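Exercise 7b. Backbone tokens:
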């Protein structure tokens, strides 16, 4: 009887241990602001889906999330301040921040007072403790914040400046700051090669296409993580992303493809690239509000620099939407449409999965500059044309 009792106690102990191991992290959070009853979620974003690790309701300004991860993983902490069950949520009322989860006790504290009416997401920094990987990420944020603050201030000055020469000077200063950010990020990756943070930062450097790097620079950057990550299940994904980034790497030849004219004729992109002139490939769509906001400036550029070759490539899937937008905006430079939308050459060859996006080709048809728009495009043109 004693042996049976001991066996039962042993089994019970094992079951308790299994239950304890099934939830290896407990994240306790506090949130200030008008958040009572709001939903909190730990979400992971994959290529084609969003999955929830856990969710909870905020009660008395507090919540608890539990779960298990095999290794440190990146998630998004999402706090939805919309009314429960609302048919069309207001995405401005959703606060999201990156968080690195580890199987340890963790805490998350954030003040959402005034969000989103008085403060936007960029002005709010949660305090997250208990994860060494999160500490590494916070060290990176601390490194970037002073540069980003200067960049935000410069962008405000650029937007308020009406004198071209002054706008160009401010834009050049901003470009230098962005170069500084890339250099600081590169150094941080090299100093933390074994951290998931370094892996994610490198992956993001290649994911923000088109890339500002050359193929040789991309290969060098991949070498930074090879020793620590080449045997990991994530590494093939990083390799694939780096190879896609090379498609539009600085110095490489533009990629040809067949597109449609407004008259419905098929045309090769190569037939419209003018040797001896700089060419701008601008990817846009009628439904893209930021794209439409850029058009008045492109019209000014087209009028001022007649020998600057602008080719707009729409990803509109509906021909009538494209033509209606062109007519309304008065876009009297070369207009083409990719009938496959983001499919075909846009995503498959150029790797572009978000718009607006633009590439500038040099006089020989090689990729030269990326995402030059607004005052940054003015700075490039001002230097080249001296006017």
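Sequence design result:
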């Amino acid at each position: 009887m004693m042996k049976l009792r001991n066996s039962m106690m042993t089994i019970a102990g094992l079951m308790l241990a299994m239950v304890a191991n099934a939830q290896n992290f407990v994240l306790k959070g506090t949130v200030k602001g008008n958040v009572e009853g709001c939903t909190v979620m730990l979400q992971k974003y994959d290529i084609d889906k969003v999955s929830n690790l856990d969710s909870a309701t905020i009660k008395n300004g507090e919540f608890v999330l539990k779960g298990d991860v095999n290794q440190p993983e990146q998630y998004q902490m999402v706090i939805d301040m919309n009314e429960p069950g609302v048919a069309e949520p207001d995405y401005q009322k959703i606060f999201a921040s990156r968080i690195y989860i580890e199987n340890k006790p963790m805490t998350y504290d954030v003040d959402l007072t005034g969000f989103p009416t008085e403060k936007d997401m960029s002005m709010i920094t949660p305090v997250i403790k208990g994860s060494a990987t999160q500490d590494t990420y916070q060290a990176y944020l601390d490194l970037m914040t002073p540069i980003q603050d200067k960049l935000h201030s410069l962008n405000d000055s650029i937007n308020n400046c009406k004198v071209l020469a002054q706008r160009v000077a401010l834009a050049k200063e901003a470009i230098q700051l962005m170069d500084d950010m890339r250099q600081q990020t590169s150094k941080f990756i090299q100093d933390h090669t074994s951290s998931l943070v370094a892996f994610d930062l490198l992956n993001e450097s290649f994911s923000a296409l088109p890339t500002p790097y050359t193929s040789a620079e991309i290969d060098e950057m991949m070498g930074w993580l090879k020793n620590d990550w080449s045997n990991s299940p994530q590494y093939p994904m990083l390799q694939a992303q780096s190879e896609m980034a090379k498609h539009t790497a600085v110095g490489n030849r533009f990629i040809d493809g067949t597109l449609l004219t407004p008259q419905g004729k098929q045309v090769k992109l190569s037939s419209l690239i003018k040797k001896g002139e700089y060419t701008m490939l601008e990817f846009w769509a009628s439904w893209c509000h930021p794209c439409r906001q850029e058009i008045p400036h492109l019209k000014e550029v087209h009028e001022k620099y007649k020998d600057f070759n602008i080719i707009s490539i729409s990803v509109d899937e509906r021909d009538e939407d494209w033509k209606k937008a062109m007519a309304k905006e008065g876009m009297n430079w070369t207009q083409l449409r990719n009938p496959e939308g983001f499919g075909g050459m846009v995503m498959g060859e150029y790797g572009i999965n978000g718009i607006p996006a633009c590439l500038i080709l040099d006089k020989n048809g090689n990729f030269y500059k990326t995402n030059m728009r607004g005052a940054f495009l003015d700075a490039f043109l001002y230097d080249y044309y001296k006017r």
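Instructor comment: The first strand starts at residue 25 and ends at 32. The domain at 253-386 is CATH 3.40.30.10 (Glutaredoxin).
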